[in-house]
Design a protein that fits this description.
625 residues; alpha+beta; Dna Ligase, domain 1; 5 domains; 5-stranded parallel β-sheet; globular
Length: 625
């Protein structure tokens, strides 16, 4: 058995691996960048090694530094977690060549499944059903468009490398194909250093079903049943559950058998996931479920499989990497109850789910569920990495209890001032279609605007806040009219402003007998608001309400579509900001004219920098002379 393990990752997955390793008596070594010097995984590990500056390309993605850290600390093995170098066959081989144990599949297996086009060809040969499409070597725009026309719209453009929804675009009509292809390639190049794509037929009523597989060096391969990951936004998973709603035993048997064949076709060892797309227009049927890709690593959503099988998949990884056989045979594995997971992200649903960064001054996560997190209250959400705060997992005896239970607990989540998707998650889980399992991968996209809208504050909350804030220093009896005139009512009206700029006039009898404050944070069904007493705003700053377009996060301007003096319409794209390897379109808030433009293509910008200003209506140019 491995005695010392280096974890080539960060955040919640590093903490997750440390927990299992400690329970097995294995010493752990963390690696960290400048941004992560005080991170939770660094504090939890037995040792920690600094590997470079904050950008991942200069730290977590530099294999030589990680291998050197393992050698320096005497670690025998390297666990890559997920993301970063976990599916990099070259890094896996370098670890092995350095005389270390690679906690993962063989480099040849990673390579075989790493490119989606080659993987689909291999799966056809193994008798695994695949989605109709094009995976050819001719990557010219003309050929790709010709193939898309032949497949029939809608089609899906997908980067052959990588995953996580990056480099993917659905195209509904031929006229939109070239623009979508250009955007897809640009994002794929930035994320995976590979801009090649494949095409797939867009499946009607698609469900995302995946099967957890596990292999060892003794030729054994088992499956640990399926998960449903259909609740996605822009191909990023939001809610995952196991088993899949509506899956009958016959279909389960066929899809899981296909997953085992897929793993055996690449001589697979360790934890992996075979991902399928299902045409669920007539329910889940084995003849309408197609192979999409294989993730040759541990998945973010692996806890739901652990919860229904009672297996510690990280322990299995470490045992198999040490040369042991898989601890259980297929017939010894069974499904117990239901598990569901929600990904709590630092992002702002009200602003198109843009990542939110900063210090977690308040962080409350309910205790009556399984929480996987890499941050604590007082910690920071960095702009350099994935903005996940935590995974919230609940296991129950059936689906109804699992979904209702997780929904109820998410309502208690409180995070400030970093924005999160907690309120969005609660509203999503409270949807009738979600409660009844009647959804597909398009569900969030079709309802996202309604689900992202914060709930209004309750009148009783407003009264309590007004009473508290009106007791603040500087707002005493001489600044209030209440009770000043004989026979006048003691009631007064206090005007509150919330963090979204909304104003509320609240009638109160008297200030609260409590410690006064300058602000009050309120969480309504996990939607946060901060309230202050309304004070006139100065004219020396710009805000989105004034028509100023602000950078929502640090990033690079990769496209500017307007010039000063241009007339624009509400919703029109003004420019594109690239941040966290994703493209974010900034649009006009209303019809108007671009009166100032400070952003330029290729320029780096900081959070809340004013990029341009749009004034309502048509602004006539000043005449010369």
């Amino acid at each position: 058995m491995i005695s010392k393990l280096l974890i080539a990752n960060r955040g919640e997955i590093a903490c997750r691996i440390i927990r299992t390793a400690r329970s097995m008596g294995i010493a752990t070594v963390a690696v960290y960048s400048d941004a992560d010097a005080k991170a939770l995984h660094v504090r939890q590990a037995d040792e920690a090694v600094h590997i470079g500056p904050s950008p991942a390309a200069e730290s977590y993605l530099v294999g030589e530094k990680i291998i050197a850290a393992a050698k320096e600390t005497g670690a025998e093995a390297i666990h890559p977690g997920y993301g970063f170098l976990s599916e990099n066959a070259g890094f896996a081989q370098a670890v092995i060549d350095a005389g270390l144990i690679w906690v993962g599949p063989k480099p040849s297996s990673i390579e075989a499944m790493g490119l989606k086009d080659a993987a689909k060809k291999l799966m056809r040969e193994a008798g695994v059903p695949v989605t109709p499409g094009y995976e050819g070597e001719d990557q010219s725009v003309e050929r790709l468009k010709q193939e898309a026309d032949a497949i029939g719209y809608p089609v899906l453009i997908k980067a052959v490398a990588g995953g996580g929804g990056k480099g993917m675009r659905k195209v509904d009509a031929a006229a939109d194909f070239e623009a979508a292809l250009e955007s897809c390639r640009r994002e794929a190049k930035a994320s995976f250093s590979n801009d090649e794509v494949l095409l797939e037929k867009w499946i009607t009523s698609p469900r995302h079903i995946e099967v957890q597989v596990f292999g060892d060096s003794h030729g054994n391969v088992v499956h640990l049943f399926e998960r449903d990951c259909s609740l996605q936004r822009r191909h990023q998973k939001v809610i995952e559950e196991a088993p899949a709603p509506g899956m009958d035993e016959a279909t389960r048997e066929e899809i899981c058998a296909a997953a085992v064949r897929a793993a055996k076709a690449v001589d697979y060892e360790g934890a992996g996931t075979i991902e399928f797309i299902a045409d669920a227009s007539e329910g889940l049927r084995a003849d309408r479920i197609f192979f999409m890709e294989m993730n040759t690593r541990l998945q973010v959503e692996h806890p739901v499989t652990e919860e229904i099988t009672g297996v510690d998949l990280v322990e299995w990884q470490l045992r198999v990497a040490s040369g042991e056989p898989i601890p259980l045979k297929q017939e010894e594995l069974s499904i117990d109850g239901w598990a569901i997971e929600a990904r709590l992200y630092a992002e702002d649903p009200a602003k198109g789910f843009l990542p939110s960064t900063g210090r977690l001054e308040e962080l409350f996560l309910p205790e009556d569920l399984r929480v996987e997190s890499g941050v604590t209250e007082g910690g920071d959400v960095s702009p350099f990495y994935d903005p996940m705060i935590a995974k919230l997992i609940l296991h129950a005896e059936d689906r109804n209890k699992a979904v209702a239970g997780l929904s109820s607990l998410i309502r208690k989540v409180a995070v400030w001032p970093v924005k999160t998707n907690a309120g969005f998650l609660w509203q999503l889980l409270d949807e009738r279609a979600v409660r009844e399992g009647e959804f597909d991968t398009s569900f969030i996209g079709e309802h996202v605007e309604r689900l992202s809208k914060p709930l209004p504050p309750r009148s009783e909350h407003l009264t309590q806040i007004a009473e508290l804030l009106s007791a603040s220093p500087g707002s005493g009896p001489w600044s209030r009219a209440a009770g000043f005139r004989l026979n006048a009512s003691n009631e007064t009206v206090v005007r509150l402003r919330d963090s979204d700029g909304e104003l509320y006039d609240v009638a109160i009898d008297e200030p609260a007998d409590a410690e006064p404050g300058d602000y009050a944070n309120v969480f309504v069904d996990a939607f946060p608001r901060q309230f202050t007493l309304d004070r006139p705003r100065g004219s020396g700053h710009a805000s989105a309400a004034d028509g100023a377009i602000l950078a929502p996060m640090p990033g690079k301007v990769i496209a500017v579509d307007v010039a000063e003096g241009d007339a624009v319409t509400a919703g029109q794209r003004l420019m594109v900001l690239e941040a966290m390897k994703m493209e974010h379109a900034l649009t006009a808030p209303f019809d108007g004219t671009v009166t100032e433009l400070s952003a330029s293509e290729g320029g780096q910008v900081q959070v809340e920098a004013v990029l341009c200003i749009v004034e309502p209506g048509v602004v006539e140019p000043q005449s010369e002379g």
